[in-house]
TrEMBL record:
Molecular function in Gene Ontology: N-acetylmuramoyl-L-alanine amidase activity
Residue intervals of the N-acetylmuramoyl-L-alanine amidase domain: 2-129
Name of protein: N-acetylmuramoyl-L-alanine amidase
Organism (species): Segatella copri
Biological processes per GO annotation: peptidoglycan catabolic process
InterPro entries: Amidase/PGRP_sf, Amidase_domain
Length: 141
């Protein structure tokens, strides 16, 4: 079993109408052999496992070997701007999934994708997952 240090929360940065098949096709277009996320939560709160946690996904470059990546479908508005547009069902499903993962990996830190990147030389900042995951999930043990 891999040593898991972090559980990253992501948004798919797509429409809330995006499907799991759309997401898989996007990963394929990028030439990735493994998906970007281990789990994806659809707008109805359905949890879809795209990759076994024993395998490395492509969620956060440089950190994937010790991470589990979880995403919700959405994260942008109609104009393509970042927004926390999680449905109540997605919020509930995320909490349940994160509780299960923390039980399995109690020392793993839950954080958003944006929390590991900060700003780079170009002052570029990642918004994903479009909310403060560290604050929101700080009480999950």
């Amino acid at each position: 079993m891999r040593q898991i240090k972090r559980i990253f929360v992501h948004c798919t940065a797509g429409s809330q109408r995006q499907t799991i098949d759309d997401l898989k096709a996007e990963f394929h277009r990028k030439g990735w052999s493994n998906p970007g996320y281990h789990y994806v939560i659809d707008t109805n709160g359905g949890v879809h496992q795209l990759l076994a946690i024993e395998h490395v996904s492509n969620g956060v470059q440089g950190y994937n070997s010790t991470a589990i990546n979880v995403a919700y479908i959405g994260g942008i508005d109609a104009d393509g701007k970042p927004i926390d547009n999680r449905t109540p069902a997605q919020k509930d499903a995320l909490v349940l999934l994160l509780h299960k993962l923390k039980q399995k990996f109690p020392t793993a830190q839950i954080m958003g994708h944006r929390d590991i990147w900060g700003t780079d030389k170009s002052n570029w900042r990642k918004m994903c997952p479009c909310f403060n995951a560290i604050q929101e999930y700080k009480d999950i043990a």
